[in-house]
Amino acid sequence: MKKFITLFVGAALFMGLSTNLFADTSVLIDFNKLKANGNGYDPAASLAADDAKIKDFKDHDSKNRTQHMPTLVNYDGIAGSNFTDDEKKKMKVSLAAYNWEIVLNSSASTVENKKFSKAIEWHTKFVNVLKDESGDVKEDGGYTILGMRIHFPDNPFNNWALVKPPFEIPAYEDIISDYKGNEEKDAALLKKNKGKKFENGYGVVKNIGVLKSIDMRIYGCQFKNSISILLKDENNAVTEYNMPQYLDFDGWKKITWVNPNYIDDAANRSLYIIPLYPHVLPYVKIQGFRIYRQGDQIGGDFVTYIRDVNVTYDKAVLDKEYPIDHEEAWGILQDRTEESKKRELTRIGHNQILKYLERQKMDKSAQ
Questions:
Q1: Using CA atoms, how far apart are residues 2 and 72, in angstroms rounded to an integer?
Q2: What's the first-to-final CA gap in the chain, in angstroms?
Q3: Among 211, 212, 264, 217, which residue's Cα sits nearest to residue 245?
Q4: Is residue 267 part of a domain?
Q5: Where are the alpha helices (DSSP H) in 321-331?
Q6: Is residue 15 part of a domain?
Q7: What is the SS3 assignment for 184?
Q8: Which pLDDT score is estimated for 46?
Q9: d(Cα 55, Cα 38) in Å, to the nearest integer?
Q10: Which of the 8 DSSP states describes residue 249?
Q11: Mean pLDDT per segment of 10 residues, for the chain of length 367 residues?
Q12: DSSP 166
């Protein structure tokens, strides 16, 4: 596999760099960081990051606290004039586990199977395999996780279920509010956080040259089903990475996909110079997880949980200070993403509005 870097080989040798490159590891998505802390429309009712209810890993509220305010996406611009202002302000969705969708393959997508397939926010007690390498805080005793229940058919045919976020995660989105959802007014912070809303464990990792490995911490219940992760890159190409281990273990385990084409020694790689700005910095973002059930395996209900996903990779471009902030001057990358963002918001909006209307009808029926 070719490695694209921005340094001349001669310059690297001149500086005395080792020919053995050291890969970086970043968190792609961490469901412990995605714990719902608000209702999506009232920052005053949201919980702060240091609130006791956020720190209590067992505390969930699936009725009044279903949104993760830092990853909130607003789709009220899609709504028509027949919606009131009060209804429009509630038209928001986030990456909280409650909002993740489960899509079954066509032959498995019956009314019953869809009815009993869903994702929830849940929790787990602390175990060593879940410990953060950077140092774990154990006094809280556990973590928030993504819980998945999938109802597969009982027939002897292969099936799969795609567990995906409620919207396509934008690679470049500004952070314009604080953790509780209040509007951020600090100009320095707004500038610093430009385009970084979904980084740091919220679904996007930038500056990826070559993937070395993908780690997933997942809970098994001794079902011989398998799982893959779908990643989308800056060229809109979606790649599915199949984890080589079955989920036929009991409890938490870190499973790993390793790139068979990864070359550790830089001396054996093909090195090229690539254009920099306004070329899009290579990135990956999560598109979802796919659970596979083989026809000879048990059907019916299947349950699993995911804590997080980490990616290990070589950087495409070395981190350094540049004398010119090109993006601040031209805004080309931001402009490029606006059109695709508008299309995605339209798609999100129509789907979420239909779900909103359905919830309204169900609420009225229950009265």
A1: 37
A2: 61
A3: 217
A4: no
A5: 326-330
A6: no
A7: coil
A8: 97
A9: 14
A10: S
A11: 37 35 88 97 96 96 96 81 79 94 96 96 95 61 96 96 94 92 93 91 95 98 98 95 97 97 77 76 95 96 98 87 84 76 71 72 57
A12: S
For 110, the domain range is 23-262+283-366
Cα separations (Å) of 76 from 24, 215, 274, 357, 367? Answer: 39, 36, 40, 13, 26
CA distance 235 to 326: 21
Residue 278, preceding peptide bond in cis (omega within 30° of 0): yes
Any domain includes 18: no
Q: Which pair of tokens denotes residue 19?
A: 């020919």
pTM of the model: 0.87
Residue 163 pairs in a beta bridge with 102, 289
Task: Give the residue carrying structure tokens 């032959």.
Answer: 107
Question: How many structural domains comprise the chain?
Answer: 1
Q: Minimal CA–CA distance to 230: which of 304, 159, 292, 164?
A: 164
Whether 307 maps to a domain, the answer reads yes
- 């800056």: which residue's tokens? 234
